[in-house]
Amino acid sequence: MLGVLGGMGPMATVDFLAKLVRATPAGRDQDHIPTLVCSAVDIPDRADAILGTGPDPLPAMRAALARLEAGGATRIAIPCNTAHHWHAALQAGTGLPILHIVDAVAETLARTGIETGGRVGLLATDGTLRAGLYRERLARREIACRAPGPEGQAAVAAAIRLVKAHRVAEARPLLEAQVRALSEAGCDRVVMACTEIPIALAGSDPSGLLVDATEALARACVAACRPDRGDAAAALPRAA
Q1: Residue 66 CB contacts under 8 Å (≥ 6 apart), including other chains
Q2: Which site in 8, 78, 115, 157 is 20 to 30 Å from 60, CA atoms measured?
Q3: Can you name the CATH fold of 2-100+215-235?
C-alpha cells in the first residue's frame, strides 16, 4: 500500500492523487494502487523552517509518517518538494522506503534527453532553493540549475502563496513570466519544483518546456508499486 504524507498543501495533495490515478495503467478499479493518505495540514511551513523564520516541521512529519506506517503503508510518497529537505531524517526513522521527488524528476529529465551538460530552470520555494535540494542532487548527473533573480523569485513565492489561498488565476501570469525568463536565459527545461505550481500552470506548456515534479513523483510511485507496469506509466501522455 502506498502511503501519501500529504497536506503540504492540501490542493497539491489532491493534484498528486489525480496524477497518480492517471499514471496508473488500469482497466478496472482493482488495477489501481491501494493508497492511504494522511493530509497532515498541521505540519509547520517547511520553507519558513529552512529560512529560520518558523518552527521545525520534522516532529509533525514523523508523527504523520507513523500514522501511515500503522495504517499498513509499505512505501511512502511526499508530494511536497521542500519537505524533502528532511528526507534523510525521515528515512532514518522508518523501515519503509520513501521515494525522493528530485530523483523522480531526474529520471523524467533523462527520459526527455536532459542529462550530462543539461541546464534546467527551477521554480521553487525560497526554502527549496536555500536547501539546495535540486542543485545538489542534479549535480550528481552533471545537470546545472538556474533559479530566477531576486525579483523573479519574489514573484514565484507570491504565486505559491496565491495558489495556497485558492487564487490560482492570479498566480498564473506571475509564473508564466518566470518560465519565459528562464527559457530566454537558455534553460533546456523548467522544473515546476513546488507542488502548488503545476496547479497554476496546468495547460500552459504547448512546447513541452515544463517538467512537473508532482507528475514525476506519481509516475515513480507507479514504477515502484507496480514494477510490471512502470514502463507503461512512463509512456502515458502527460496530464494537461
Answers
A1: none
A2: 157
A3: Rossmann fold (3.40.50)
Task: Give ranges for CATH 3.40.50.1860 in the chain.
Answer: 2-100+215-235, 102-213
C-alpha 121, offset from chain centre? 15
Q: Which three cell numbers stand for residue 80?
A: 511536497
Residue with cell 496508473: 24
Residue with the three cell numbers 504523520: 64
Query: For the segment 158-211, what is each residue's pLDDT rounded down to a tens digit?
Result: 999 999 999 999 999 999 999 999 999 999 999 999 999 999 999 988 789 999
Give the residue numbers annotated as catalytic, written as ranges: 80, 194
Tell me, which fold does domain 102-213 have in CATH?
Rossmann fold (3.40.50)
In sequence order, which residues have a C-beta less than 8 Å from that of residue 85 and are 6 or more positions away?
46, 50, 127, 128, 131, 133
